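Example A, followed by Example B.
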Amino acid sequence: MELSNKDKAAAIQNSIETSTLEETGLIHPTSYKQHNPNVETGLQAILALHDQMPMHKVYTNVVRQFQDGDYGFVHIDYFLFDYTAAFDIHRFENGVSVEHWDNLQINPRKLNKSGRTMTDGKTKAIDHHKTDSNKKIAQDFVQNILIDGNLGDISKYFDGDRLIQHNPHMGDGVKEFIDVLSEWEKEGKPQKYTQIHKVLGEGNFVLVLSEGYLGGEHSAFYDLYRIEEDKIVEHWDVIEAIPEPDRRKNTNGKF
Protein backbone atom coordinates (compact mmCIF):
# COMPACT_ATOMS: atom_id res chain seq x y z
CA MET A 1 0.00 0.00 0.00
CA GLU A 2 1.38 3.40 -0.97
CA LEU A 3 2.24 5.77 1.86
CA SER A 4 0.06 8.82 2.43
CA ASN A 5 1.57 12.23 1.74
CA LYS A 6 1.99 12.92 5.45
CA ASP A 7 3.74 9.57 5.94
CA LYS A 8 6.03 10.35 3.01
CA ALA A 9 6.89 13.77 4.45
CA ALA A 10 7.69 12.13 7.79
CA ALA A 11 9.78 9.43 6.12
CA ILE A 12 11.82 12.02 4.21
CA GLN A 13 12.63 13.98 7.35
CA ASN A 14 13.32 10.85 9.44
CA SER A 15 15.79 9.68 6.81
CA ILE A 16 18.16 12.45 7.91
CA GLU A 17 18.97 10.56 11.09
CA THR A 18 19.41 7.24 9.30
CA SER A 19 21.30 8.70 6.29
CA THR A 20 18.86 6.96 3.93
CA LEU A 21 17.33 9.90 2.05
CA GLU A 22 18.43 8.72 -1.39
CA GLU A 23 17.31 5.16 -0.67
CA THR A 24 13.77 6.22 0.19
CA GLY A 25 13.17 7.29 -3.42
CA LEU A 26 10.71 9.90 -2.14
CA ILE A 27 12.41 12.98 -3.64
CA HIS A 28 12.49 13.59 -7.38
CA PRO A 29 16.11 13.07 -8.45
CA THR A 30 16.22 15.99 -10.88
CA SER A 31 13.17 18.20 -10.28
CA TYR A 32 13.22 19.18 -6.60
CA LYS A 33 12.52 22.86 -5.96
CA GLN A 34 14.04 24.11 -2.73
CA HIS A 35 12.61 27.09 -0.81
CA ASN A 36 15.04 26.99 2.12
CA PRO A 37 17.19 30.02 1.17
CA ASN A 38 20.24 28.55 2.89
CA VAL A 39 20.33 25.45 0.68
CA GLU A 40 20.85 25.12 -3.05
CA THR A 41 18.00 23.65 -5.05
CA GLY A 42 17.92 19.96 -5.98
CA LEU A 43 18.40 16.57 -4.30
CA GLN A 44 22.19 16.60 -4.50
CA ALA A 45 22.37 19.78 -2.44
CA ILE A 46 20.39 18.09 0.34
CA LEU A 47 22.69 15.06 0.30
CA ALA A 48 25.74 17.34 0.45
CA LEU A 49 24.27 19.20 3.41
CA HIS A 50 23.70 15.96 5.29
CA ASP A 51 27.39 15.12 4.80
CA GLN A 52 28.27 18.22 6.82
CA MET A 53 26.10 17.34 9.82
CA PRO A 54 27.56 15.94 13.08
CA MET A 55 25.87 12.57 12.58
CA HIS A 56 26.86 11.28 16.02
CA LYS A 57 24.50 13.95 17.44
CA VAL A 58 21.80 14.13 14.76
CA TYR A 59 18.30 12.96 15.59
CA THR A 60 14.86 13.56 14.07
CA ASN A 61 11.61 13.27 15.99
CA VAL A 62 8.50 13.91 13.89
CA VAL A 63 6.00 15.00 16.52
CA ARG A 64 3.06 15.82 14.22
CA GLN A 65 2.27 14.90 10.63
CA PHE A 66 -0.59 16.14 8.47
CA GLN A 67 -1.61 16.41 4.84
CA ASP A 68 -3.63 18.76 2.69
CA GLY A 69 -4.11 17.52 -0.85
CA ASP A 70 -0.71 17.24 -2.55
CA TYR A 71 1.03 18.61 0.53
CA GLY A 72 2.47 16.67 3.46
CA PHE A 73 3.66 18.78 6.39
CA VAL A 74 5.36 17.83 9.63
CA HIS A 75 6.32 19.41 12.95
CA ILE A 76 9.72 18.21 14.11
CA ASP A 77 12.05 18.20 17.10
CA TYR A 78 15.55 17.98 15.57
CA PHE A 79 19.22 18.02 16.27
CA LEU A 80 20.85 19.01 12.97
CA PHE A 81 23.64 21.47 13.72
CA ASP A 82 21.94 22.47 16.97
CA TYR A 83 18.74 21.68 18.86
CA THR A 84 16.01 22.86 16.53
CA ALA A 85 12.22 23.06 16.23
CA ALA A 86 10.95 23.06 12.65
CA PHE A 87 8.12 22.71 10.20
CA ASP A 88 8.81 20.97 6.89
CA ILE A 89 6.42 20.94 3.95
CA HIS A 90 6.63 18.76 0.83
CA ARG A 91 4.52 19.00 -2.31
CA PHE A 92 4.15 15.66 -4.07
CA GLU A 93 3.64 14.81 -7.72
CA ASN A 94 3.38 11.23 -8.96
CA GLY A 95 4.29 9.93 -5.53
CA VAL A 96 7.50 11.90 -4.96
CA SER A 97 8.38 15.28 -3.48
CA VAL A 98 9.06 17.94 -6.08
CA GLU A 99 9.02 21.02 -3.83
CA HIS A 100 10.03 21.79 -0.25
CA TRP A 101 9.52 24.61 2.26
CA ASP A 102 10.66 24.79 5.87
CA ASN A 103 11.14 27.05 8.86
CA LEU A 104 13.68 26.34 11.58
CA GLN A 105 14.30 27.91 14.99
CA ILE A 106 16.87 27.10 17.65
CA ASN A 107 15.03 25.24 20.40
CA PRO A 108 15.99 26.59 23.85
CA ARG A 109 14.94 23.24 25.34
CA LYS A 110 13.45 24.92 28.37
CA LEU A 111 9.90 25.24 29.57
CA ASN A 112 8.02 28.45 28.89
CA LYS A 113 6.13 30.39 31.57
CA SER A 114 3.37 27.75 31.59
CA GLY A 115 5.68 24.74 31.65
CA ARG A 116 5.40 23.89 27.95
CA THR A 117 7.98 23.10 25.28
CA MET A 118 7.99 24.18 21.64
CA THR A 119 6.67 20.79 20.49
CA ASP A 120 4.64 19.09 23.24
CA GLY A 121 0.84 18.97 23.32
CA LYS A 122 -1.86 17.36 21.19
CA THR A 123 -0.70 15.58 18.04
CA LYS A 124 -3.65 13.89 16.29
CA ALA A 125 -6.10 15.62 13.95
CA ILE A 126 -9.84 15.24 14.45
CA ASP A 127 -12.88 16.92 12.85
CA HIS A 128 -11.69 16.25 9.31
CA HIS A 129 -15.05 17.39 7.99
CA LYS A 130 -14.24 20.88 9.31
CA THR A 131 -10.85 21.27 7.63
CA ASP A 132 -11.96 24.06 5.29
CA SER A 133 -13.82 26.05 7.96
CA ASN A 134 -10.93 25.68 10.40
CA LYS A 135 -8.49 26.91 7.76
CA LYS A 136 -10.69 29.95 7.28
CA ILE A 137 -10.75 30.67 11.03
CA ALA A 138 -6.95 30.54 11.31
CA GLN A 139 -6.40 32.59 8.17
CA ASP A 140 -8.93 35.19 9.28
CA PHE A 141 -7.27 35.43 12.71
CA VAL A 142 -3.84 36.08 11.22
CA GLN A 143 -5.18 38.59 8.70
CA ASN A 144 -7.60 40.44 10.98
CA ILE A 145 -5.62 40.45 14.22
CA LEU A 146 -1.93 40.01 13.41
CA ILE A 147 -1.79 41.87 10.09
CA ASP A 148 -4.62 44.40 10.26
CA GLY A 149 -4.29 44.90 14.03
CA ASN A 150 -8.01 44.77 14.86
CA LEU A 151 -7.47 43.71 18.48
CA GLY A 152 -11.05 44.62 19.34
CA ASP A 153 -12.11 41.51 17.39
CA ILE A 154 -9.84 39.10 19.24
CA SER A 155 -12.65 37.61 21.36
CA LYS A 156 -14.16 36.17 18.14
CA TYR A 157 -11.33 33.67 17.89
CA PHE A 158 -10.99 32.39 21.47
CA ASP A 159 -13.09 30.95 24.28
CA GLY A 160 -12.45 33.62 26.89
CA ASP A 161 -8.79 33.65 27.91
CA ARG A 162 -8.18 30.02 26.94
CA LEU A 163 -5.03 29.57 24.85
CA ILE A 164 -2.45 26.83 25.32
CA GLN A 165 0.79 28.50 24.28
CA HIS A 166 4.04 26.83 23.12
CA ASN A 167 5.99 29.93 22.13
CA PRO A 168 9.09 29.76 24.40
CA HIS A 169 8.76 33.46 25.33
CA MET A 170 5.11 33.41 26.42
CA GLY A 171 2.77 31.65 28.79
CA ASP A 172 -0.80 30.45 28.38
CA GLY A 173 -3.70 32.81 27.84
CA VAL A 174 -4.99 35.32 25.30
CA LYS A 175 -4.22 38.24 27.63
CA GLU A 176 -0.65 37.01 28.05
CA PHE A 177 -0.29 36.83 24.26
CA ILE A 178 -1.47 40.41 23.78
CA ASP A 179 0.55 41.68 26.73
CA VAL A 180 3.80 40.16 25.44
CA LEU A 181 3.28 41.58 21.95
CA SER A 182 2.62 45.00 23.53
CA GLU A 183 5.75 44.67 25.68
CA TRP A 184 7.88 43.82 22.63
CA GLU A 185 6.45 46.87 20.87
CA LYS A 186 7.41 49.13 23.78
CA GLU A 187 10.90 47.61 23.86
CA GLY A 188 11.39 48.49 20.18
CA LYS A 189 11.38 44.88 18.93
CA PRO A 190 7.82 44.48 17.62
CA GLN A 191 6.50 41.38 15.92
CA LYS A 192 4.76 42.55 12.74
CA TYR A 193 2.95 40.32 10.24
CA THR A 194 2.62 41.74 6.73
CA GLN A 195 1.39 38.97 4.41
CA ILE A 196 -0.04 35.44 4.45
CA HIS A 197 1.52 33.16 1.84
CA LYS A 198 0.01 29.72 2.44
CA VAL A 199 -2.59 28.01 4.64
CA LEU A 200 -2.52 24.23 5.06
CA GLY A 201 -4.76 22.16 7.27
CA GLU A 202 -6.01 18.75 8.28
CA GLY A 203 -9.04 18.59 10.53
CA ASN A 204 -8.55 20.80 13.56
CA PHE A 205 -4.86 21.61 12.89
CA VAL A 206 -4.00 24.54 10.60
CA LEU A 207 -0.55 25.80 9.60
CA VAL A 208 -0.32 29.42 8.41
CA LEU A 209 2.82 30.62 6.60
CA SER A 210 3.33 34.36 6.87
CA GLU A 211 5.94 37.02 6.25
CA GLY A 212 6.82 39.98 8.44
CA TYR A 213 9.35 41.43 10.84
CA LEU A 214 10.56 40.54 14.32
CA GLY A 215 12.52 43.29 15.99
CA GLY A 216 13.05 44.87 12.58
CA GLU A 217 14.46 41.66 11.07
CA HIS A 218 12.74 40.31 7.96
CA SER A 219 11.24 37.00 9.11
CA ALA A 220 9.08 34.04 8.19
CA PHE A 221 6.37 33.01 10.64
CA TYR A 222 5.02 29.46 10.63
CA ASP A 223 2.07 29.28 13.06
CA LEU A 224 0.25 26.04 13.85
CA TYR A 225 -3.20 26.38 15.42
CA ARG A 226 -5.40 23.71 17.01
CA ILE A 227 -9.08 24.58 16.85
CA GLU A 228 -11.99 23.26 18.90
CA GLU A 229 -15.61 24.18 18.28
CA ASP A 230 -14.60 27.08 16.01
CA LYS A 231 -12.19 28.60 18.55
CA ILE A 232 -8.38 28.58 18.61
CA VAL A 233 -7.26 26.65 21.70
CA GLU A 234 -3.55 25.86 21.13
CA HIS A 235 -0.63 27.47 19.30
CA TRP A 236 2.87 26.46 18.22
CA ASP A 237 5.21 28.56 16.12
CA VAL A 238 8.61 28.65 14.45
CA ILE A 239 10.20 31.96 13.47
CA GLU A 240 13.20 32.27 11.17
CA ALA A 241 15.04 35.25 9.71
CA ILE A 242 14.94 35.56 5.91
CA PRO A 243 18.40 36.33 4.49
CA GLU A 244 18.92 39.16 2.03
CA PRO A 245 18.75 38.10 -1.65
CA ASP A 246 22.52 38.25 -2.14
CA ARG A 247 23.00 35.75 0.70
CA ARG A 248 20.50 33.17 -0.57
CA LYS A 249 21.67 29.94 -2.17
CA ASN A 250 18.69 29.63 -4.50
CA THR A 251 16.33 32.02 -6.27
CA ASN A 252 13.07 30.17 -5.55
CA GLY A 253 11.89 32.47 -2.77
CA LYS A 254 11.21 31.60 0.87
CA PHE A 255 7.50 31.06 0.21
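Example B, a separate protein, is given below in the same form.
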Amino acid sequence: MTTSTSSHPNQLLKDEIRAEALRLGFHACGFANAAATWPNGAWLADFIAEGFHGDMGWMEETLERRSHPTAMWTDARSAVVLGMNYGPDHDPLTILGQTDRAAISVYAQGDDYHDVVKKQLKLLAGWMHQRFGQEVKVFVDTAPLMEKPLAQRAGLGWQGKHTNLVSRPFGSWLFLGSVLTTLDLPPDPPETNHCGSCRACLDICPTNAFPEPNRLDARRCISYLTIELAGPIPVEFRPVMGNRIYGCDDCLAVCPWNKFAQVSSEAKFHAREALKGPALADLARLDNPSFRALFSKSPVKRIGRDRFVRNVLYAIGNSGDVALMGVVEPLMRDPAPVVRGAAVWAARRLAAERAVALRGPEDDPEVLAEWSQILPR
Protein backbone atom coordinates (compact mmCIF):
# COMPACT_ATOMS: atom_id res chain seq x y z
CA MET A 1 0.00 0.00 0.00
CA THR A 2 1.43 3.34 -1.05
CA THR A 3 1.67 5.92 1.71
CA SER A 4 0.81 9.50 0.87
CA THR A 5 3.75 11.91 0.81
CA SER A 6 1.52 14.79 1.87
CA SER A 7 2.80 17.23 4.49
CA HIS A 8 -0.48 16.83 6.38
CA PRO A 9 0.21 17.27 10.12
CA ASN A 10 -1.36 13.88 10.89
CA GLN A 11 0.67 11.88 8.37
CA LEU A 12 2.72 10.24 11.13
CA LEU A 13 -0.47 9.25 12.96
CA LYS A 14 -1.65 7.50 9.82
CA ASP A 15 1.61 5.59 9.60
CA GLU A 16 1.15 4.46 13.22
CA ILE A 17 -2.40 3.26 12.51
CA ARG A 18 -1.31 1.30 9.46
CA ALA A 19 1.48 -0.38 11.39
CA GLU A 20 -0.91 -1.38 14.19
CA ALA A 21 -3.48 -2.70 11.68
CA LEU A 22 -0.89 -4.94 10.05
CA ARG A 23 0.28 -6.12 13.46
CA LEU A 24 -3.32 -7.13 14.29
CA GLY A 25 -3.50 -9.37 11.23
CA PHE A 26 -4.99 -7.15 8.54
CA HIS A 27 -3.30 -7.42 5.17
CA ALA A 28 -4.32 -4.05 3.75
CA CYS A 29 -5.00 -0.66 5.30
CA GLY A 30 -6.02 2.52 3.51
CA PHE A 31 -7.47 5.90 4.39
CA ALA A 32 -10.29 7.93 2.88
CA ASN A 33 -12.08 11.20 3.59
CA ALA A 34 -15.38 10.10 5.11
CA ALA A 35 -17.06 13.45 4.47
CA ALA A 36 -16.15 13.86 0.79
CA THR A 37 -18.71 13.95 -2.02
CA TRP A 38 -20.22 10.48 -2.46
CA PRO A 39 -21.89 9.61 -5.80
CA ASN A 40 -22.33 5.92 -4.98
CA GLY A 41 -25.64 6.48 -3.20
CA ALA A 42 -27.26 7.19 -6.56
CA TRP A 43 -25.91 3.90 -7.95
CA LEU A 44 -27.47 2.00 -5.07
CA ALA A 45 -30.79 3.81 -5.53
CA ASP A 46 -30.84 2.73 -9.20
CA PHE A 47 -30.01 -0.86 -8.21
CA ILE A 48 -33.01 -0.95 -5.88
CA ALA A 49 -35.32 0.88 -8.29
CA GLU A 50 -34.69 -1.87 -10.86
CA GLY A 51 -35.53 -4.53 -8.27
CA PHE A 52 -32.10 -6.16 -8.54
CA HIS A 53 -32.01 -6.57 -4.75
CA GLY A 54 -34.79 -9.17 -4.86
CA ASP A 55 -36.16 -10.08 -1.43
CA MET A 56 -33.40 -8.22 0.42
CA GLY A 57 -35.80 -5.61 1.76
CA TRP A 58 -33.24 -4.39 4.27
CA MET A 59 -31.32 -2.78 1.42
CA GLU A 60 -34.28 -0.58 0.59
CA GLU A 61 -34.99 0.11 4.25
CA THR A 62 -31.42 1.30 4.85
CA LEU A 63 -31.01 3.15 1.54
CA GLU A 64 -30.94 6.59 3.14
CA ARG A 65 -28.34 5.52 5.70
CA ARG A 66 -26.24 3.98 2.92
CA SER A 67 -26.35 7.16 0.84
CA HIS A 68 -23.15 8.55 2.41
CA PRO A 69 -20.64 7.37 5.05
CA THR A 70 -21.64 10.27 7.29
CA ALA A 71 -25.36 9.45 7.03
CA MET A 72 -24.92 7.18 10.06
CA TRP A 73 -22.46 9.42 11.88
CA THR A 74 -22.30 13.05 10.92
CA ASP A 75 -19.12 13.70 12.92
CA ALA A 76 -16.99 11.20 10.98
CA ARG A 77 -14.01 12.84 9.32
CA SER A 78 -11.89 9.91 8.14
CA ALA A 79 -12.34 6.24 7.26
CA VAL A 80 -9.69 3.65 8.00
CA VAL A 81 -10.50 0.82 5.59
CA LEU A 82 -9.08 -2.62 6.35
CA GLY A 83 -8.72 -5.74 4.25
CA MET A 84 -8.12 -9.31 5.40
CA ASN A 85 -6.98 -11.79 2.78
CA TYR A 86 -8.90 -15.08 2.67
CA GLY A 87 -7.48 -16.44 -0.57
CA PRO A 88 -7.85 -20.26 -0.65
CA ASP A 89 -4.93 -22.67 -0.80
CA HIS A 90 -6.66 -24.61 -3.59
CA ASP A 91 -8.71 -24.01 -6.72
CA PRO A 92 -12.28 -23.60 -5.39
CA LEU A 93 -13.75 -24.58 -8.76
CA THR A 94 -12.28 -28.11 -8.70
CA ILE A 95 -15.04 -29.27 -6.36
CA LEU A 96 -17.65 -28.50 -9.03
CA GLY A 97 -16.57 -31.65 -10.86
CA GLN A 98 -17.18 -33.84 -7.80
CA THR A 99 -20.95 -34.13 -8.08
CA ASP A 100 -21.38 -36.26 -4.95
CA ARG A 101 -19.81 -33.51 -2.83
CA ALA A 102 -20.91 -30.03 -1.84
CA ALA A 103 -19.37 -26.77 -2.97
CA ILE A 104 -19.45 -24.26 -0.10
CA SER A 105 -18.20 -20.78 -0.87
CA VAL A 106 -14.63 -20.16 0.30
CA TYR A 107 -15.65 -17.34 2.64
CA ALA A 108 -18.02 -19.68 4.50
CA GLN A 109 -15.58 -22.55 5.06
CA GLY A 110 -14.29 -21.13 8.33
CA ASP A 111 -15.56 -19.06 11.23
CA ASP A 112 -17.97 -16.26 10.38
CA TYR A 113 -15.81 -13.52 8.93
CA HIS A 114 -18.04 -10.86 10.48
CA ASP A 115 -16.88 -12.07 13.88
CA VAL A 116 -13.24 -12.55 12.84
CA VAL A 117 -12.96 -9.11 11.23
CA LYS A 118 -15.01 -7.27 13.83
CA LYS A 119 -12.89 -8.60 16.67
CA GLN A 120 -9.74 -7.18 15.07
CA LEU A 121 -11.53 -3.95 14.11
CA LYS A 122 -12.52 -3.40 17.72
CA LEU A 123 -8.95 -3.96 18.86
CA LEU A 124 -7.72 -1.41 16.34
CA ALA A 125 -10.46 1.10 17.18
CA GLY A 126 -9.81 0.73 20.90
CA TRP A 127 -6.11 1.30 20.35
CA MET A 128 -6.86 4.38 18.20
CA HIS A 129 -9.17 5.88 20.82
CA GLN A 130 -6.65 5.32 23.59
CA ARG A 131 -3.72 6.53 21.51
CA PHE A 132 -5.26 9.64 19.91
CA GLY A 133 -8.26 10.48 22.10
CA GLN A 134 -10.71 10.76 19.17
CA GLU A 135 -14.07 9.02 18.74
CA VAL A 136 -14.27 5.84 16.63
CA LYS A 137 -16.92 3.46 15.30
CA VAL A 138 -16.40 0.09 13.58
CA PHE A 139 -18.30 -1.34 10.63
CA VAL A 140 -18.41 -4.65 8.80
CA ASP A 141 -20.86 -5.40 6.00
CA THR A 142 -23.79 -6.07 8.35
CA ALA A 143 -23.89 -2.28 8.84
CA PRO A 144 -25.29 0.06 6.17
CA LEU A 145 -21.94 1.30 4.87
CA MET A 146 -20.99 0.93 1.20
CA GLU A 147 -17.64 -0.62 1.93
CA LYS A 148 -16.43 -1.52 -1.58
CA PRO A 149 -16.50 2.00 -3.05
CA LEU A 150 -15.05 3.27 0.23
CA ALA A 151 -12.23 0.73 -0.11
CA GLN A 152 -11.56 1.96 -3.64
CA ARG A 153 -11.35 5.51 -2.36
CA ALA A 154 -8.87 4.36 0.27
CA GLY A 155 -6.68 2.72 -2.36
CA LEU A 156 -7.27 -0.93 -1.40
CA GLY A 157 -8.57 -1.97 -4.80
CA TRP A 158 -11.29 -1.32 -7.34
CA GLN A 159 -14.76 -2.71 -8.00
CA GLY A 160 -14.35 -5.25 -10.75
CA LYS A 161 -16.89 -6.10 -13.40
CA HIS A 162 -18.33 -8.66 -10.96
CA THR A 163 -18.99 -5.71 -8.55
CA ASN A 164 -16.65 -7.15 -5.91
CA LEU A 165 -13.43 -5.51 -4.83
CA VAL A 166 -10.29 -6.53 -6.71
CA SER A 167 -6.89 -5.86 -5.21
CA ARG A 168 -3.59 -5.94 -7.06
CA PRO A 169 -1.83 -7.68 -4.13
CA PHE A 170 -4.75 -9.94 -3.10
CA GLY A 171 -7.01 -10.49 -6.08
CA SER A 172 -10.73 -10.93 -5.37
CA TRP A 173 -10.23 -12.41 -1.90
CA LEU A 174 -10.46 -9.59 0.63
CA PHE A 175 -12.78 -9.30 3.61
CA LEU A 176 -13.44 -5.63 4.30
CA GLY A 177 -14.09 -3.63 7.44
CA SER A 178 -13.87 0.04 8.38
CA VAL A 179 -13.19 2.27 11.33
CA LEU A 180 -14.81 5.71 11.06
CA THR A 181 -13.20 8.35 13.23
CA THR A 182 -13.38 12.03 14.10
CA LEU A 183 -9.62 12.10 13.62
CA ASP A 184 -8.57 14.11 10.56
CA LEU A 185 -6.24 11.89 8.55
CA PRO A 186 -4.80 12.51 5.07
CA PRO A 187 -6.48 10.26 2.49
CA ASP A 188 -4.57 7.78 0.34
CA PRO A 189 -4.77 8.07 -3.44
CA PRO A 190 -7.81 6.16 -4.73
CA GLU A 191 -7.21 3.01 -6.75
CA THR A 192 -8.02 2.99 -10.47
CA ASN A 193 -9.64 0.18 -12.45
CA HIS A 194 -7.28 -2.45 -13.83
CA CYS A 195 -9.78 -4.91 -15.36
CA GLY A 196 -9.11 -3.76 -18.91
CA SER A 197 -10.93 -5.83 -21.52
CA CYS A 198 -11.06 -8.95 -19.32
CA ARG A 199 -14.57 -10.31 -18.82
CA ALA A 200 -13.79 -13.73 -17.34
CA CYS A 201 -15.96 -13.08 -14.28
CA LEU A 202 -18.95 -12.20 -16.44
CA ASP A 203 -18.64 -15.09 -18.86
CA ILE A 204 -18.33 -17.80 -16.20
CA CYS A 205 -21.50 -16.89 -14.29
CA PRO A 206 -23.78 -19.98 -14.43
CA THR A 207 -26.99 -17.94 -14.27
CA ASN A 208 -26.04 -14.88 -16.33
CA ALA A 209 -26.52 -12.64 -13.32
CA PHE A 210 -24.64 -9.72 -14.87
CA PRO A 211 -26.81 -7.77 -17.34
CA GLU A 212 -23.70 -5.74 -18.15
CA PRO A 213 -20.26 -5.14 -16.58
CA ASN A 214 -20.41 -3.69 -13.06
CA ARG A 215 -24.12 -4.46 -12.68
CA LEU A 216 -25.41 -7.46 -10.77
CA ASP A 217 -28.98 -8.72 -10.78
CA ALA A 218 -28.96 -10.42 -7.38
CA ARG A 219 -32.17 -12.27 -8.20
CA ARG A 220 -30.17 -14.46 -10.59
CA CYS A 221 -27.06 -14.83 -8.41
CA ILE A 222 -26.47 -18.26 -6.85
CA SER A 223 -25.18 -16.61 -3.68
CA TYR A 224 -28.49 -14.78 -3.31
CA LEU A 225 -30.55 -17.82 -4.26
CA THR A 226 -28.86 -20.20 -1.82
CA ILE A 227 -28.52 -17.76 1.08
CA GLU A 228 -31.06 -14.94 0.95
CA LEU A 229 -34.05 -16.58 -0.74
CA ALA A 230 -36.27 -18.33 1.81
CA GLY A 231 -38.65 -20.30 -0.39
CA PRO A 232 -38.12 -22.69 -3.30
CA ILE A 233 -35.42 -21.59 -5.73
CA PRO A 234 -36.87 -20.89 -9.21
CA VAL A 235 -36.79 -24.04 -11.34
CA GLU A 236 -34.83 -22.38 -14.14
CA PHE A 237 -31.79 -21.93 -11.88
CA ARG A 238 -31.70 -25.31 -10.16
CA PRO A 239 -29.91 -27.37 -12.85
CA VAL A 240 -27.12 -24.80 -13.36
CA MET A 241 -26.50 -24.59 -9.61
CA GLY A 242 -24.76 -27.95 -9.87
CA ASN A 243 -23.43 -28.83 -6.42
CA ARG A 244 -23.17 -25.23 -5.17
CA ILE A 245 -25.09 -25.37 -1.91
CA TYR A 246 -23.96 -22.16 -0.21
CA GLY A 247 -22.79 -19.23 -2.28
CA CYS A 248 -20.84 -19.28 -5.52
CA ASP A 249 -17.15 -18.55 -6.10
CA ASP A 250 -17.06 -18.73 -9.90
CA CYS A 251 -16.76 -15.02 -10.67
CA LEU A 252 -14.19 -14.53 -7.91
CA ALA A 253 -12.12 -17.61 -8.63
CA VAL A 254 -11.45 -16.82 -12.31
CA CYS A 255 -10.11 -13.33 -11.64
CA PRO A 256 -6.55 -13.15 -13.08
CA TRP A 257 -5.42 -11.00 -10.16
CA ASN A 258 -5.86 -13.98 -7.82
CA LYS A 259 -2.40 -15.22 -8.73
CA PHE A 260 -1.11 -12.76 -6.12
CA ALA A 261 -3.58 -13.79 -3.40
CA GLN A 262 -1.54 -16.14 -1.25
CA VAL A 263 -2.37 -16.29 2.47
CA SER A 264 0.33 -16.81 5.07
CA SER A 265 0.03 -19.39 7.84
CA GLU A 266 -0.48 -16.52 10.28
CA ALA A 267 -3.73 -15.43 8.63
CA LYS A 268 -6.72 -14.92 10.91
CA PHE A 269 -9.08 -16.83 8.61
CA HIS A 270 -8.75 -20.62 8.39
CA ALA A 271 -11.00 -22.92 6.37
CA ARG A 272 -12.21 -26.07 8.10
CA GLU A 273 -11.30 -29.33 6.41
CA ALA A 274 -14.80 -30.65 7.11
CA LEU A 275 -16.28 -27.91 4.91
CA LYS A 276 -13.98 -28.39 1.93
CA GLY A 277 -16.28 -30.56 -0.16
CA PRO A 278 -18.36 -32.54 2.36
CA ALA A 279 -20.45 -35.44 1.05
CA LEU A 280 -23.95 -34.47 -0.05
CA ALA A 281 -25.38 -37.63 1.53
CA ASP A 282 -24.01 -36.66 4.94
CA LEU A 283 -25.35 -33.12 4.68
CA ALA A 284 -28.81 -34.32 3.65
CA ARG A 285 -29.09 -36.30 6.87
CA LEU A 286 -28.57 -33.26 9.12
CA ASP A 287 -31.29 -32.48 11.62
CA ASN A 288 -31.43 -29.19 13.50
CA PRO A 289 -29.00 -30.13 16.32
CA SER A 290 -26.43 -31.71 14.01
CA PHE A 291 -26.71 -28.80 11.58
CA ARG A 292 -26.03 -26.30 14.38
CA ALA A 293 -23.13 -28.38 15.63
CA LEU A 294 -21.47 -28.73 12.23
CA PHE A 295 -21.83 -25.03 11.45
CA SER A 296 -21.09 -23.62 14.89
CA LYS A 297 -19.55 -20.13 14.48
CA SER A 298 -20.07 -20.44 10.71
CA PRO A 299 -22.02 -17.96 8.55
CA VAL A 300 -23.87 -20.98 7.11
CA LYS A 301 -25.74 -21.39 10.38
CA ARG A 302 -27.79 -18.26 9.82
CA ILE A 303 -29.83 -19.72 6.94
CA GLY A 304 -31.08 -22.58 9.14
CA ARG A 305 -31.22 -26.30 8.57
CA ASP A 306 -34.32 -26.31 6.33
CA ARG A 307 -33.02 -23.84 3.76
CA PHE A 308 -29.63 -25.52 3.82
CA VAL A 309 -31.05 -29.01 3.21
CA ARG A 310 -33.18 -27.52 0.41
CA ASN A 311 -29.93 -26.49 -1.29
CA VAL A 312 -28.36 -29.90 -0.68
CA LEU A 313 -31.35 -31.62 -2.29
CA TYR A 314 -31.07 -29.51 -5.43
CA ALA A 315 -27.41 -30.57 -5.64
CA ILE A 316 -28.40 -34.21 -5.16
CA GLY A 317 -30.93 -33.84 -7.96
CA ASN A 318 -28.14 -32.54 -10.18
CA SER A 319 -25.76 -35.36 -9.25
CA GLY A 320 -27.36 -38.03 -11.43
CA ASP A 321 -26.55 -40.57 -8.69
CA VAL A 322 -29.60 -42.79 -8.20
CA ALA A 323 -27.98 -44.28 -5.10
CA LEU A 324 -28.66 -40.95 -3.37
CA MET A 325 -32.40 -41.69 -3.50
CA GLY A 326 -31.80 -43.40 -0.17
CA VAL A 327 -31.30 -40.03 1.52
CA VAL A 328 -33.91 -38.25 -0.62
CA GLU A 329 -36.85 -40.51 0.22
CA PRO A 330 -37.10 -39.72 3.96
CA LEU A 331 -36.93 -36.01 3.18
CA MET A 332 -40.03 -36.27 0.99
CA ARG A 333 -41.85 -36.57 4.33
CA ASP A 334 -39.85 -33.85 6.13
CA PRO A 335 -41.88 -31.47 8.35
CA ALA A 336 -40.56 -28.44 6.39
CA PRO A 337 -42.42 -27.79 3.11
CA VAL A 338 -39.34 -26.23 1.50
CA VAL A 339 -37.42 -29.46 2.17
CA ARG A 340 -40.25 -31.71 0.94
CA GLY A 341 -40.56 -29.71 -2.26
CA ALA A 342 -36.83 -29.89 -2.96
CA ALA A 343 -36.86 -33.62 -2.21
CA VAL A 344 -39.65 -34.16 -4.75
CA TRP A 345 -37.65 -32.25 -7.36
CA ALA A 346 -34.52 -34.28 -6.60
CA ALA A 347 -36.48 -37.54 -6.77
CA ARG A 348 -37.96 -36.53 -10.10
CA ARG A 349 -34.45 -35.93 -11.47
CA LEU A 350 -33.03 -39.19 -10.13
CA ALA A 351 -35.85 -41.75 -10.35
CA ALA A 352 -39.23 -40.29 -11.29
CA GLU A 353 -41.16 -43.56 -11.46
CA ARG A 354 -39.86 -44.65 -8.09
CA ALA A 355 -40.78 -41.26 -6.64
CA VAL A 356 -44.41 -41.53 -7.73
CA ALA A 357 -44.83 -44.65 -5.62
CA LEU A 358 -43.70 -42.66 -2.57
CA ARG A 359 -46.38 -39.99 -2.87
CA GLY A 360 -48.11 -39.34 0.43
CA PRO A 361 -50.69 -36.83 1.69
CA GLU A 362 -49.75 -33.24 0.89
CA ASP A 363 -51.52 -29.91 1.34
CA ASP A 364 -48.77 -27.33 0.88
CA PRO A 365 -49.34 -25.49 -2.44
CA GLU A 366 -45.63 -25.18 -3.27
CA VAL A 367 -44.97 -28.85 -2.64
CA LEU A 368 -48.06 -29.75 -4.65
CA ALA A 369 -46.64 -27.67 -7.50
CA GLU A 370 -43.50 -29.82 -7.39
CA TRP A 371 -45.61 -32.98 -7.48
CA SER A 372 -47.56 -31.66 -10.45
CA GLN A 373 -44.38 -31.90 -12.50
CA ILE A 374 -43.84 -35.55 -11.67
CA LEU A 375 -47.28 -37.21 -11.46
CA PRO A 376 -48.96 -38.69 -14.54
CA ARG A 377 -51.61 -36.39 -15.99
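On Example B: The chain is about 35% helix and 10% strand.
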